[in-house]
Amino acid sequence: MSQRWIQVSKKVLDQLEKLEAAKKKDRLDLVRSMQFAVKALEMSLVGWKGWVSNPEIMTRFTKEELVNMNKKLFEFSRSFIQYDIEATELGARKGLKPIKRPKKTREPKPQTSYVA
């Protein structure tokens, strides 16, 4: 599993580099490359969530390794959230409103009838 994850991740990195290095990007190209970058982040985060929520995996790391992972993840998180705030403020100045997610509708509970 780990080797396959590493291979896929290296391919994602290669694609990110190609997208970043592309010349003459129009607005649609930029949006497409941002979509790819967000999907790459999502893929990585799903993997991290799987690791961190699995004690069997996490107990294999030393405390020092966990301290280093924790530090890096906090740096990444802080940096990303700071940028998220900047981008959201830019959107707000342009009059953009938050995207409203459709409310989850509850399915009606099946009626139970008791026959005596």
Structure overview:
Residues 112-116 have low confidence and may be disordered. With 116 residues, the protein is mostly helical. Helices cover 70% and strands 0% of the residues. The chain contains four helices and no strands. It has helices at 2-21, 27-52, 55-58, 63-93. The longest helix has 31 residues, at 63-93. The protein is extended, with a radius of gyration of 21 Å. It folds into two domains: 1-60; 61-96. It starts with a helix and ends in a 23-residue tail after the last helix. Helix 1 (2-21) packs antiparallel against helix 2 (27-52).
What would a concise description of this structure say?
The protein has 116 residues and is an all-alpha fold. The protein contains four helices and no strands.
Share of helix, binned: 55-70%
Query: How are helices and strands ordered from N to C?
Result: HHHH
What's the overall geometry?
extended
Oligomer: single chain
What's the N-to-C terminus distance?
A: 55 Å
Number of strands: 0
How much of the sequence lies in strands comes to: under 5%
Average pLDDT, rounded to a whole number, is 89
Low-confidence spans:
112-116
Largest beta-sheet characterization: none
With helices defined by DSSP (H or I, 4 residues minimum), what is the helix count? 4
Rg to the nearest angstrom? 21 Å
What is the total domain count? Answer: 2
